[in-house]
Design a protein that fits this description.
The complex is a heterodimer of chains A (about 120) and B (about 110). Chain A contains no helices and eleven strands. In chain A, strands 2, 4, 5, 6, 9, 10 and 11 form a seven-stranded mixed beta sheet that branches. A four-stranded antiparallel beta sheet of chain A has the order 1-3-8-7, with no helix packed on it. Chain A has about 120 residues and is mainly β. Chain B has no helices and nine strands. Chain B is mostly beta strands and about 110 residues long. In chain B, a hairpin with a 6-residue loop joins strand 3 (about 35-40) and strand 4 (about 45-50). The chains are: A mainly beta (about 120), B mainly beta (about 110). The interface between A and B is medium-sized, with 26 and 25 residues.
Amino acid sequence: QVQLQESGPGLVKASETLSLTCTVSGYSISSGYYWAWIRQPPGKGLEWIGSIFHSGDTFYNPSLKSRVTISVDTSKNQLSLKLNSVTATDTAVYYCARGPGDYGDNEAWGQGTLVTVSS
Amino acid sequence: QSVLTQPPSASGTPGQRVTISCSGSSSNIGTNTVNWYQQLPGTAPKLLIYSNNQRPSGVPGRFSGSKSGTSASLAISGLQSEDEADYHCATWDDSLRGWVFGGGTKVTVL
């Protein structure tokens, strides 16, 4: 059974770069599926940040595209997120996911990690 | 401002049927399938419905989804106390070339 675990600093200073890693176990990223980063500001709804296919093809949210980089390290079976020039509005719980999509039972999400941007 | 529109709240007594709407446009719901997620307090979203009306294994049959035109709905039949949660709809948007979510609906069991 696949498991996803986000990790990274819980506090980032404004104007700096937010960097998170998602370690995948129980499934090889290189075997397929789209993998995504999704965030949720406190008390608000979900926002898709971007997705990457195992081949490296990426899709980004147009509103974040200029600041976001998503990549995979198949040797470590990890997904990574970099978001630069952060502001307080980037404070959120960040989730990595296998999906979203019509994956049914094969869709999976990590537990999420809270990142707070401080001034 | 979310691309998909959901009512912020819904409620019902135990055993009642509750329906949540999700309104979109021709570039998203009108063209693509819809997922629904349940998010219990303090936890990650969990896939509840995919491909408009399919339930992953383990999801109780009292949850059902439907889609018509540019809108989708989630119905909870026989509402139970453990159904108190936030519910989110999601789909792919062909114009934005990305996934879009609704703002979420908080379901309260009275």
